[in-house]
Structures are given as structure tokens and as C-alpha cells.
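Mods, move this if it's the wrong board.
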Amino acid sequence: SSVSNIFDETLRPREQKDRLVKMLKPIKDKILCAVSGNHDRRSLKDADDDPMYDIMCKLDLEDLYRQNVAFLKLQLGSIHQFKNKTNNTYTIAVTHGAGGGVLSGSTINRNERFAYAIDNLDCLVVGHTHKGMVSKPAKIVIDPRNDVVQIKPFTVVSTQSWLSYGGYATQKMLLPAANASADNGQKVILSARRGKKNIKIEW
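Not the wrong board. C-alpha cells:
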């Protein structure tokens, strides 16, 4: 269950971390980054312990951990394409997020507002509200070197939760949301064809 006090959880903090390490070990080589959530931040404040950092350390992936925001640069293509500068590069920001309000519109507004602050962003991935949503805003980009004004689209993904409804959510009178699972988790699929990038979200 998810509650506000780490010592009132069903499992002790150490047991929670051990369980998550076991869950993540089979996909360890696929993990690109990890960020702390709001409950991790609370336990850091209350008990000087950041569970997500400990989990990443136990997986020998502590260099991929960021407390607030992780920035990824992903390049698609062959070594030949990299050398000839024809590769397609994606820039992604990952954060747990905060706030967002009760209704879906306020969540989208908050996430998009943060995304607008990051130049050359292709995709922002945010958790926190547990509402599975995707929006595709764009920003006007001025390129003075090439005398070009372009519309730069980007994708904002609000991820689903893997938690059951109850505990903390009911205490705060939060609305229930559809959960992710191994069968219907969200996937951000990056592809490129003829120099044109494409981001697709699958559920």
C-alpha cells in the first residue's frame, strides 16, 4: 500500500527496496535512468534515506540516478550514420513531477508548462498524478544562423501507476486511475525514416 509514513507501510523500508531490486534485476540492462518520487523525497526528509538511490546502488546503476530530473540523449542509427551526421538524435527529460491538481486538464497544463522551459526537447516523461495521458504541444523556434523560424513539436507523457488504489490516495481524496501492468504498460517508441523523427506511444 502507499501511505505517507514509511514506517506505517505493509513492508519495512528494507523489504520494500529488496523487493523492487528483485523486480528490476531481469531488466537491469534496459534501465536508462531513475528519479526519486515524492514519497522518496519524504523519506529523505524524515529519515535521511532515499529509497530509489539505494535501489539503483544495489543494481550497480547509481550513475544513472538523478534526484529530480534525468536528461537522456538517444541516437538511432549505425556508426556510419553517426560519422556522416545523418543520425537521428532524441532528447528526453524524465521527472517524477509534483502537484498537477485533481482533474486531467490541470495535470496536462502543469506538465506542458515545464516542458516549454526545456529547449530542443523531444519528449517529457512525468509520473506523480498516475493518469495515463499523452499531449503533443509545439513551440516556435527561431534559428538566426539559418534565418529560419520553425514549429518544434514535442511529446508529453504522463505515466500510469502500478499501485492499487487505497492508502495514501484515499486519505488525500484523490481520484482512482487505471493502473499499468506488465501487459498494458506504456511504451515510448522512437523511430526515424528519411531523416524525420517520430514518437509513438503504445498502451
